[in-house]
Amino acid sequence: MYQLIASDLDGTLLNNAHMVDAYTADTLQQLEKSGVQFVIATGRHYLDVMGIRDVLGVRAHLITSNGARIHSPENQLIHAENIPASAVQELSQAEFATGTLLSFYLDDAWLIDQHSQYLLDMHQDSGFTYQISDLANHHGKGVAKVLYIGEHEHLLDVEKKLRERFSDTLYITFSMPDCLEVMAAGVSKGHALQVVLARLGLLAEQCIAFGDGQNDLELLQTAGHPRLMSNANPRLVAALPGVLTIGSNEESGVARHLRTAFKMAH
């Protein structure tokens, strides 16, 4: 049976209000008591995910900023990789940022270039919040992730420009249709999962993983038992032919699948 459960948050473990439901929290807490270990793998900021882990009520390794940061259940920093400062300065210029809401993730801060009630609402479960800053003139040091939020069609144009400019020197992916994310080359949830598996002395075959977004591709490719949410992004589904699809995030699909797999009462 699975020894490690790895899950994305938004669109996967969290409901459509971006919150933890009691059924999911209870499921994970019961599994933890039976000896199963957990990894939360998300594009969100580490300080944000600490709060969500507290709501879930389990110990878990945290893969955050799409793998740019890895923390132990005791909050020890295991791995960190930043975008080169010169690239961050380029990424914040009008050529890419116009028409978007721009964010930087640093170790101890979330910087944003304008107010967003949508983002405040999305992070209500953890209480984590942003600081408004002049990102176009930021020095670019210590940035784990650059995030563009906007209309999907516009972000597709931004993605095209970024790939033309940076090619393979940065990791560029969508976490949600309205969230385009940029990290250092080599960063991914999949690479981070490999680090956690090695740290725990586990094999990929002992891991089941759940995801819905394009930034979950490497995570699902790394885990021995990948699972797609029924609400998964079509580009992710197309990239993973034959991977089992389970229920949606809104119907607690991860928890229901785990209860069946571990023969727990529903």
TrEMBL record:
Asked if the keyword ATP-binding belongs to this entry, the reply reads: no
In its UniProt record, a GO molecular function of this protein is: phosphatase activity
Magnesium recorded as keyword: yes
Q: Which Pfam families match?
A: Hydrolase_3
Question: InterPro entries under this entry?
Answer: Cof (IPR000150), HAD-like_sf (IPR036412), HAD-SF_hydro_IIB (IPR006379), HAD_sf (IPR023214)
Enumerate the Gene3D superfamilies for this protein.
3.30.1240.10, HAD superfamily/HAD-like
The prosthetic group or cofactor this protein requires is: Mg(2+)
Q: What keywords does the record list, in alphabetical order?
A: Hydrolase, Magnesium, Metal-binding
Supply the name of the protein.
Cof-type HAD-IIB family hydrolase
